[in-house]
């Protein structure tokens, strides 16, 4: 039973959520008006009932005083009681012995109550009572007169309240219908910008035309919504443009090594088919050709790996953690040494904690060291320095190469950009672009300057983090425990 009762609210909630916003606003408007009319009807009915009762009680008191004066002048036994005309109020005289007199033809009244009897005996001057007979309710006012009392009775008349209720019901129905129409009109008018916005969004989705902004109209929330969607379209345009540029640049960069690789492989295949491989290519030339093939494969592998990193976005999906940047720099320097044994890396690092992604940061540092290693002379080491400056971790990679021309500095971190002097060197032009993306994703900044040794000084500044709290030392055993252990 309780499980079934729990399903009903969920069904109602699902049904409500499936309704359109226009239907919800119409239902809410009609319901609000219906509730308002019902509350107004209840309050007005109560006020009308109180007013009618007060009027009836005042009338009963006035009529009782008139009858009491007549009874005191003529006596309770001789006071004239006019025959009952068939409608109107009822009267009754209570004699000193407890008997009663009523007009001829008057309907029977409820028995005299005990409290009314005490009024007739002189316990109080007057008493207002209400009650229900077998058919209707009534009001009875008992007033002391002579040695007895007189009573005036008014049967409750619900006709005014019923007529009032019927009128309020008609008014309420009209108000509900009118409220539904008003709510539908307001919803239709208020949601017209939403309808136009929806149509524009459907048009963009159907035509794939991201260049058409949605017209800015309306005000308040509608304007903010339209501006948000236009901002989203602008971001999608930038993303699509970046994807197109990435695809075009990748195709351009892959073309050269693929062409060279294809030509060399075709040469080997052609000579092998002719059976002239050994005669046409001496061992020294064949070794040189195979070395070129290996270098081209390595270049393609590096380019594909960098394109994959770049296509992932700013950083990979690894989680952020608190780490010592000095450990990351040391790991990157070790990898750089294994990849290029002839490049010497001189480390001067201090412990600086940062919050970041270890693999992404290590890749960025490795790219910086690899870039410096391509330019640094064989007898000059690549200097890597890490220190804390205020609330920042500052990493500097310094080489003794020819440096970077001032015209190339603004584009050093652009992807696929390679200075004229670097075109003869291996590389794809993506390494520093990946560095820029990783640094941006960590809330830092990257820059370039001229080194004191004449080469390039690449600098990365990241927000530093508070080092982790040291672990609590283990509790030392007490003297007794120590003695027992020994």
What is this structure, in a nutshell?
This protein has about 475 residues and is of the alpha+beta class.
Strand portion, in percent?
A: 15-25%
The parts where pLDDT drops under 50 for at least 5 residues are: 419-428, 477-486
List the strand order in the largest sheet. 2-1-5-4-3
| DSSP, total strands | 12
Quick one: biggest sheet? Answer: 5 strands, antiparallel
Specify the structural class: alpha+beta
> What's the SSE pattern?
HHEEHEEEHHHHHEHEEHEEHEEH
What's the shape? Answer: rod-shaped
The helical percent reads 40-55%
Count of helical regions: 12
Cα-atom radius of gyration: 50 Å
Q: What value does the average pLDDT take? A: 76
Topology:
Blueprint: H1 2-18, H2 21-74, E1 90-94, E2 100-101, H3 114-120, E3 126-132, E4 137-145, E5 148-155, H4 159-190, H5 192-207, H6 221-274, H7 277-280, H8 283-311, E6 321-324, H9 325-339, E7 345-349, E8 353-356, H10 358-375, E9 382-389, E10 392-398, H11 431-441, E11 445-450, E12 456-463, H12 479-485
Parallel strand pairs: 7-9
Antiparallel strand pairs: 1-2, 1-5, 3-4, 4-5, 6-8, 9-10, 10-12, 11-12
Structure, explained:
- Strand 3 and strand 4 form a beta hairpin.
- A five-stranded antiparallel beta sheet has the order 2-1-5-4-3. It has a five-stranded mixed beta sheet with strand order 7-9-10-12-11.
- The relative contact order is 0.06.
- It is built from twelve helices and twelve strands.
- The radius of gyration is 50 Å and the shape is rod-shaped.
- The protein has 486 residues and is α+β, with helices and mostly antiparallel strands.
């Amino acid at each position: 039973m309780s499980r079934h009762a729990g399903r009903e609210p969920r069904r109602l909630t699902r049904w409500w959520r499936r309704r359109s916003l226009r239907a919800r606003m119409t239902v809410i408007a009609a319901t609000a008006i219906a509730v308002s009319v019902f509350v107004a009807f209840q309050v007005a009915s109560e006020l009308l009932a109180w007013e009618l009762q007060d009027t009836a009680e005042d009338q009963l008191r006035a009529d009782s005083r008139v009858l009491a004066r007549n009874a005191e002048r003529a006596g309770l036994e001789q006071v004239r009681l006019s025959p009952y005309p068939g409608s109107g109020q009822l009267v009754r005289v209570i004699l000193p012995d407890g008997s009663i007199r009523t007009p001829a033809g008057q309907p029977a009244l409820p028995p005299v109550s005990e409290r009314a009897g005490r009024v007739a005996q002189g316990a109080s001057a007057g008493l207002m009572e209400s009650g229900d007979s077998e058919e209707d309710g009534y009001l009875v006012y008992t007033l002391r007169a002579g040695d007895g009392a007189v009573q005036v009775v008014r049967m409750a008349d619900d006709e005014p309240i019923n007529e009032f209720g019927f009128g309020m019901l008609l008014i309420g129905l009209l108000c509900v219908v009118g409220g539904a129409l008003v709510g539908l009109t307001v919803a239709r008018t208020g949601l017209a910008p939403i309808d136009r916005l929806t149509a524009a969004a459907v048009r963009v989705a159907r035509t794939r035309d991201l260049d058409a902004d949605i017209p800015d109209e309306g005000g308040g929330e509608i304007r903010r919504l339209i501006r948000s969607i236009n901002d989203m379209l602008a971001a999608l345009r930038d993303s699509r443009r970046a994807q197109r540029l990435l695809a075009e640049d990748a195709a351009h960069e892959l073309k050269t090594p693929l062409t060279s690789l294809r030509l060399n492989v075709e040469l080997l295949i052609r000579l092998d088919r002719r059976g002239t491989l050994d005669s046409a290519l001496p061992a020294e030339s064949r070794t040189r050709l195979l070395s070129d093939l290996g270098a081209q494969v390595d270049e393609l592998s590096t380019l594909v790996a960098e394109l994959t990193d770049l296509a992932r976005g700013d950083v990979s999906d690894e989680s952020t953690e608190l780490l010592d940047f000095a450990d990351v720099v040391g790991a990157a320097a070790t990898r750089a040494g294994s990849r290029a044994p002839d490049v010497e890396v001189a480390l001067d690092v201090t412990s600086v904690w940062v919050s970041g992604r270890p693999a992404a940061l290590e890749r960025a540092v490795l790219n910086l060291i690899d870039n410096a290693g391509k330019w640094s002379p064989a007898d000059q080491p690549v200097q890597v320095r890490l220190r804390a400056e205020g609330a920042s971790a500052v990493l500097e990679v310094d080489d003794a190469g020819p440096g970077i021309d001032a015209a190339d500095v603004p584009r050093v971190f652009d992807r696929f950009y390679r200075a004229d002097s670097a075109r003869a060197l291996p590389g794809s032009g993506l390494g520093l672009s990946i560095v820029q993306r990783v640094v941006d994703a960590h809330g830092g900044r990257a820059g370039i300057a001229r080194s004191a040794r004449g080469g390039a000084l690449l600098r990365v500044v990241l927000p530093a983090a508070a080092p982790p709290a040291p672990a609590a030392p283990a509790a030392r055993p007490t003297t007794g425990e120590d003695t027992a252990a020994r």
